[in-house]
Design a protein that fits this description.
three-stranded antiparallel sheet; 17% strand; globular; eight-stranded mixed sheet; Rossmann fold; alpha/beta; 11 helices; Chemotaxis Receptor Methyltransferase Cher, domain 1
Length: 294
Amino acid sequence: MTPSDYEYLRKLLKARSGLVLSAEKHYLVESRLLPVARKAGLSNLTGLVARLRAPDAERLTVEVVEAMTTNESLFFRDKVPFDHFRDTIMPALLAARAASRRIRIWCAAAATGQEPYTLAMCLKEMGKELRGWRIEIVATDLSTEVLARAKSGIYSQFEVQRGLSVMMLIKYFSQVGEAWQIAPEIRGMVKFAPLNLLNDFSHLGKFDLVFCRNVLIYFDQATKIDVLERIADVTERDGYLVLGGAETVMGLTKRFRPVADKRGLYRQPDGVEPEGNVIPFSPVRADAAVVAAD
């Protein structure tokens, strides 16, 4: 791969996905894209770049972007955000939404589905507390390939062993050959849809909680600011944002503020604390995915 080939790929990935590659990431590009090149009948990345420059290369461009932006996920990843979800976020939202009994959640980088399914299992564990509530989980990702896997809800033995307790595995999964499939009741709680965070997402409507973890670290400063500002636009005034452990809103936007002693958890600055007065809740869209709580 020539320097000009690498520079072309860097610019393409930045424009299409926001991914910023440093000058020394040749090895990563080669390991991710050589399989794409060979699948297209090409022997090297120089040939791949030449094909990408052609006017009819949209499908190949999508494959290249997806190959470079596919990231791993696991159930209950990092644990702390899900502790916040159970102990801080949900109690506050249940109090604030007592009149409407509706809550909307967006997983903005769902990958193969472990994060939204983890949230769905957490909700199921709340049991009778959510009876009569309408809770919607919308899960999006840039990659249609990983979303297809997420919708199937099928995971390898290795994947279910990463972060998932034996009790939760037995309770919410069934074995399919050598793999495991999450229960239909959990799969039905999540609506998956393709979405590029660089594009407009205002059509998704307003959310009470947004999970956008381990995405901003791949963006440059300007893109981080733009994405955070637009996330703020679709977050209710007393809503929450959850970022990854290595991410922050500090120095990027004033639309969110850290929640004291809650790593990775943020709120709109004009939102009230759980013990304060409830800010009125705006109606949700009727066509989002629905969580049917027992």
